[in-house]
Specification:
Domain Nucleoside phosphorylase: 8-166
Mean pLDDT: 93
Number of strands: 7
Low-confidence stretches: none
Order of helices and strands: HEEEHEHEHEEH
Radius of gyration: 16 Å
EC number: 2.4.2.3
Strand content: 25-35%
CATH architecture: 3-Layer(aba) Sandwich
CATH topology: Rossmann fold
Strand order of the largest sheet: 1-5-4-2-6
Helix content: 25-40%
CATH class: Alpha Beta
Organism: Mesotoga infera
Number of helices: 5
GO cellular component, one term: cytosol
Protein name: Uridine phosphorylase
Length: 183
Amino acid sequence: MAIAVEELRTLGVHTLIRVGSAGSFQKKLKMGEGVIVTGAVRDDGTSSSYVPEIYPAVSHHHVLRALEKAASIIEHRCHMGIVLSTDSYYGARFNCETAKMIELLKKANTLCVEMESSTLLTLGGVFGLRTGSILTIREEIGEDEKPVTQAGEIFEDGLEKCIQISIKALELIIEKDKLFKFD
C-alpha cells in the first residue's frame, strides 16, 4: 500500500479510496454489507516506519462525507467506524496476546479487521492527501460467536456495491472540487 501511495502522490494524485474486504468483529455486520472506515487501529508494521504509533490513522473528512452520501445514493447498507488494520489477518489463532487485544478491540466497538487502511490513512495524513476506505464484510459472526467464512454471491454483490459507492464518492468529490479548490 505504501509504495502505491508514494508513487501515486508523485504523479499528482491527491485523493485515494481503498475498496477491500474485511472480517466482522460485531454481530450487527452482515455478509456483503459495507464499512466506511472513519479510523484504523494501527497494528501494521509499515505505517510506523513513517510516524510513531501515537499518530492517528483517520479518513479525510471530504472522503467520509462523499462515501456516506454515495452509499445513500447507491442504497447499500454501510456502517461507519473504526477498524483494525493488521499485517496478520489470522495471527490471533497462534498468539495469545493478539487474541486478547482483539477481544478488547471488539468490546471497544471496533467493527472489523482488514490489512491496508491504517497505512493508507496514516500516509494520507502525513502527505496531506484525501484518503479513505470502504470495506465489504466477507466473514460475519455466527450465532455461536465464531466467524462464518462465506465469500460467495452475497459477498460479491456487496463488493460490487462498494465499488459503485467508491466511484460515486469520487464523482461527488470531483464535483465539489470544481466549486472549491482543495488545499
